[in-house]
Write a structure and sequence with these properties.
The complex is a heterotrimer of chains A (about 120), B (about 230) and C (about 120). Chain A has about 120 residues and is mostly helical. Helix content of chain A is about 80%, strand content about 0%. Chain A is elongated, with a radius of gyration of 18 Å. Chain B folds into 2 domains: about 100 residues, Ubiquitin-like (UB roll), CATH 3.10.20; about 130 residues, Fumarate Reductase Iron-sulfur Protein, Chain B, domain 2. By secondary structure, chain B is of the alpha+beta class. Chain B has a 5-stranded mixed sheet with strand order 2-1-5-3-4. Chain B has a two-stranded antiparallel sheet with strand order 6-7. Chain C has 4 helices and no strands. In chain C, helix 1 crosses helix 3 and helix 3 packs antiparallel against helix 4. Chain C starts with 9 loop residues before the first helix and ends in a 10-residue tail after the last helix. The chains are: A mainly alpha (about 120), B alpha+beta (about 230), C mainly alpha (about 120). Chains in contact: A-B, A-C, B-C. Chains B and C meet through helix 3 and helix 10 of B and helix 1 and helix 3 of C. Chain B: Keywords: 2Fe-2S, 3Fe-4S, 4Fe-4S, Iron, Iron-sulfur, Metal-binding, Oxidoreductase, Tricarboxylic acid cycle. Chain B: Its cofactor is [3Fe-4S] cluster; [4Fe-4S] cluster; [2Fe-2S] cluster. Chain B: Part of an enzyme complex containing three subunits: a flavoprotein (frdA), an iron-sulfur protein (frdB), and diheme cytochrome b (frdC).
Chain lengths: ~120, ~230, ~120
Amino acid sequence: MHYKWKTGMWAFVMHRVTGLALTVYLIMHINVVSSLHDPGSFNKTMAFLGQPLFRVLELGLLAAVIYHGLNGVRVFLIDFCNRTKNHAAIFWILAATGSVIFIVGAYPLLHHAGIF
Amino acid sequence: MNTVFKIYRFDPESGRNPRYQYFEIDVTKGQTVLDALIEIKAHKDGSLVFRRSCRSGICGSCAMQINGLNKLACETQVEDLKSKTVTIDPLPGFKPIKDLAVDMEPFYDKLRAVLPYLINPDSPPTDKERIQSPEEFKMIELATSCILCGGCTSSCPSFWADKAYLGPAALVKAYRYVFDTRDRGYSDRSGVVNNKHGLWRCHTIMNCNDACPKHIFPTEGISLLKRKVVEEKY
Amino acid sequence: MDRGIGSGGAFAWFFQRISGVFLLVALLAHFWVLHYVSGGDVTFQIVAQRLATPIWKTIDLAFLVLAIIHGFNGFIMVIHDYIHNHNLRLVLVSFIWIAGIVLGLLGTITIISFQAPAGGGL
């Protein structure tokens, strides 16, 4: 099987991959936040997660969330607004929008980590 | 212009694995991929197997994978492909029988499953046919032009992963009758389409829209059918 | 022809889209509140301040439950796409359900039982 990958295929596969990754993140996130009952341990965990390494990983999280959310908008438009014929154009418009949101969102993340 | 055709060859009786065979022919302006295959069969290798009938985009026999995308060989001009080597494979997702011919039987089974005929227990008016306005027909016009070539279903990653999935062609056929104002068979068809091997395996990957030689846009019909099922249920 | 491994799927499809819209809005608010309004480092004090109010508890609870169902529903969707062995599918889907419920309980307990410690420097 060597079918050519077009926009819709990339959009779908990335939606799946980011979706699964975000669910795995959600599991870890809920576990971390559950340490809230002990302020000391919560602050210790947060300080540990404040290291530059995790800040960079957070950029990946931000990108995944933006992609999954915006492509979700695209899926919604296809399913409920009959936008099948414009799906590729919508993909690229949202890709541009997503890039802007990423930069706006990444700046404070890196700034507080002392990278910028 | 000399063009190399890299063609999938498979003969189950030979006991050999599938392989690619290369043929070089001088392509003339306007020559289609099907013309090239006919020329190869006539002058280079008479054992090459492929399906064709009308040569003009009506019968749907010559759907195959050309340079990685499902197309009708008779509607694809070699010149438009703009490549020195044209790779030709049988439709993916179906069992190859010999060379470019695949077993389409599972495809037809799925069309039968959605009851592809008018269901209406009320007898038609005695003096005239069942009336439908042009606006009402517009809703299903594209879907009625399907030539059952199998290009869409064969291009669908959901179908590759789940061979029991109805696929775009059968779902478009279901759409064509469910959204036909003269039809009353929704309740007979809803169980077939509202199913784990039906509508909900479509993840709007869009390969079918590009593959369809009649530009039917199966995804749009499938989305309308999904909404119809949800509306009827809730 | 086999049409039968569990009928339906309409609800899962519809839910995924509706919850998706809610999650998109909620997530924007979540990021905004945590990384812009609070000004950077997430500390116990900042989170506690928010989580001590009933309104935020309600919002976070809805967010938690919908996010878990949306994510795990997605997992089940993938299983239905690629796993066709009935028994294996049953095992995997059951596992996802149990994991989802456990995670939901853990998160719910975290949110509901949270009380700002007396004199916690709020």
